From TrEMBL, chains A, B, C, D:
All residue ranges annotated as the HTH tetR-type domain in the record: 17-77
Cross-referenced PANTHER family: HTH-TYPE TRANSCRIPTIONAL DUAL REGULATOR CECR (PTHR30055:SF146), HTH-TYPE TRANSCRIPTIONAL REGULATOR RUTR (PTHR30055)
Name of this protein: TetR family transcriptional regulator
PROSITE patterns (UniProt xref): HTH_TETR_2 (PS50977)
Keyword DNA-binding: yes
DNA-binding region: 40-59
Alphabetic keyword roster: DNA-binding
InterPro entries tied to this protein: Homeodomain-like_sf (IPR009057), HTH-type_TetR-like_transc_reg (IPR050109), HTH_TetR (IPR001647), Tet_transcr_reg_TetR-rel_C_sf (IPR036271), TetR_C_Proteobacteria (IPR039536)
Gene3D superfamilies listed in its UniProt record: Tetracycline Repressor, domain 2
Length: 235, 235, 235, 235
DNA sequence: AATGAATGAGTCTTCATTCAT
DNA sequence: TATGAATGAAGACTCATTCAT
């Protein structure tokens, strides 16, 4: 796997042993809350209980700290999906397990702040986005697709487009993770993750429709009902 | 209505009425790409074809510009979902139409940069998150839930938890919109929106499982297969 | 008299006829209130009921406007003191009249804002200070000194140092004019000019002491009573 | 206590404790010379031998710096007048001493730049004017009035209006302080403070008139002698 | 290794000044 | 003449980074 992390490791992996993890935790928190640009290194230092200068003993600058935050936090789950073994279980069960696993190991922890961080900063630091895609997203997509294919092969699942179905399967969990870090907080919502995941699993496995039928074509009927619909400007 | 890319008239010939929209377009682009904090007003001005000072003739400061970007871009779709009328169509068809509508009217336009912007800045500007939730998200959730309930009432759908199912229904579209603005770009992916939406619609309507059954309980089987799984720190 | 104004007139005196006096009045008000640097030309324009650009039709820039404000407002009283004729009155009466005249013609009008303006800006625009000194202050000093000398010559006054006594005679009126424009306003005081001037006139003519004696020497007794007197730093 | 002009230690050796006073000295000088609005913080910093950013380590912004300049420079003389003790001296002697004291402790130092500063900025920062009035002016007025009353009570002084007489007594010293900072500089005058104060003291104690009489009423005679007297506009 | 005072480049913001109408 | 939108130089302020201790 030609991942970004391999290229990056020589640069980022120095002083791994003695690098205080408090710094990375503090940085994830502050970066996650404020975004990279608005985060002040002094706040990170304060939160880690050290002085501003100390940060520079471990990370040569703000950008390196960001990269370390992402890579170090992610490293424990790098390749995790790829190592998931086939189980002697129904495909439905394995899909459900996989989605719950993602949530347990990722979405429900502060690690999910990483998602927000990467989405926000991927334009400024494309290698971070690439790294995240290679090490986290793609393996999960591949794993979910393998489950789907296995289910189709065994006659348990119907699925015409396993590649995109895998992407779609992940999506609500990603959204949920983002949600917990943003809208839930600012709107005083309190989305229940288990209820959310269960709804998702239930829907994608059994479907909404009692009587099976082809996917409806987009009739555009709803669109027609919007009076005076006009955007600000065509983009 | 002129497109953002047209730069016809010389500076001085452009009228006061045109400026705000030109600035809002430019600002959405720059804010969406860089984030609020990292965006330079000079870049916004340059993109709008004006000088730094001109921005301040229309928006009293950077924050007001951000708020205007969000509110003005969103205003055309405010209440849109709430105005969608019931159709004489199957519920399946209406769900499909609704999801396609969302994409046509929102996800596929530069408006979707708003989502990223709001997720990134909701902590710093909670009123923006709140506004977006009240005016865009909640109405759509409500609309989708009404469709689900209608389908259940008519015997067409099975759905135990219409509230959360509505949230889940939206999620992949949100993710897709974010994706187009971040990972697709930085990883040279080129996710096909129609194929993605169709997979989503197909899955949620018909379900993956050929033989219907109860939602599997989370067995945690996948988790057990991960060796040495350990996060950076407990969060 | 080689006054600054002669050198300056060629530059400042243009367009005298059609130059709107509202502009100068507005400028005096705004400059007097905010000071030169903090005054916005737009405020001057607004107060004069014209647009920003119009100011530039009459004054080539902010500095010229300031100079015009000073010179034009002062010109009616330029040389006024020098033209005061000897009266067939007691010197005491003439001193009193002179001080009341200063107040009537100068201190009590918005012209006194000029004093504040000049004191504030004399460092930045020394020629203004010089002009004011030559055209207003010096003639008044000379006039007052001439009255004092006349009084001494006629045996009505005792005065050892007519030059400095003249300066001192003016001083309370200057202070009063400044006071009305600053402290009176911000501290809600309401100093009564007539009562103030009368006290001044009474004191300088008749003196406080009932029994005449020499000016006491500074014994420094009061100083000795201040415990721990210590400034911020020696200057 | 080192003087402002000493620049001994290299930047890095100066301690945190020294900075504020160095900055306040520099700021008083620059504010006093240019006025608040026209003063550039960079000039203050340069004069204090530090960089722009350093100012903000000690004062959160320009306005706070101004307030600190005023309050810190004034604090040593706050209440000073109120603490002046009665002396076993003639009231004339005490008046003379008091006026010389004011000059020694205030007018002759760079503290007198404060007066100019406050007069210039009292409109913009009324609390500064108020503070100065409460802490410096009013106590001095009260002190001088107490001396006058004491003199009247003991039969040494005649004074009908001690309240206003006290105000008038201060005024020439205030004017002198302002003068040294403005007109003296720009007009190359060199007013001799001692001669000035002595003239003032002599005049107010003994009076100009050899033969005592009532305060003359304003006859307006001088006014009548001015031909074509006409202000710019009625104010 | 750790500190935190100091630095100065970079950005927001203001406003004198210009200029096409 | 008059307007006011537009400009851009200048200055307040922030904060990543350095460095003497």
């Amino acid at each position: 796997m030609k991942s970004c992390s391999e290229k990056l490791k020589p640069r980022w992996a120095r002083r791994k042993e003695d690098r205080p993890q408090e710094l990375l935790c503090a940085a994830l928190h502050v970066f996650g809350e404020k975004g990279y640009a608005a985060a002040r290194l002094e706040d990170v230092a304060k939160r880690a209980g050290v002085s501003k200068g100390t940060v520079y003993l471990y990370y040569s600058n703000k950008e390196e700290l960001l990269k370390a935050v992402v890579t170090e936090h992610i490293s424990p789950i790098v390749g995790e999906a790829a190592n998931l073994k086939d189980e002697k279980a129904t495909s439905a069960q394995m899909i459900s397990d996989a989605l719950h696993l993602w949530w347990d190991r990722y979405g429900s922890t502060e690690l999910s702040a990483i998602t927000k961080l990467i989405l926000s900063e991927a334009n400024a630091f494309p290698e971070l986005g690439h790294f995240f895609y290679d090490e986290v997203i793609k393996p999960w997509w591949d794993y979910l697709e393998s489950l789907l294919k296995q289910g189709v092969a065994s006659g348990e699942f119907r699925c015409q487009d396993t590649e995109y179905a895998a992407k779609v399967l992940c999506a609500p969990l990603v959204t949920l993770g983002l949600w917990k870090h943003t809208m839930d907080a600012c709107c005083n919502l309190n989305t229940d993750p288990m209820r959310y995941i269960d709804s998702h699993v239930q829907m994608v496995l059994n479907g909404l429709s009692i009587k099976q039928h082809d996917t409806p074509h987009n009739t555009g009927s709803a669109v027609r009902n919007i009076a005076g619909a006009g955007g600000l400007q065509p983009h």
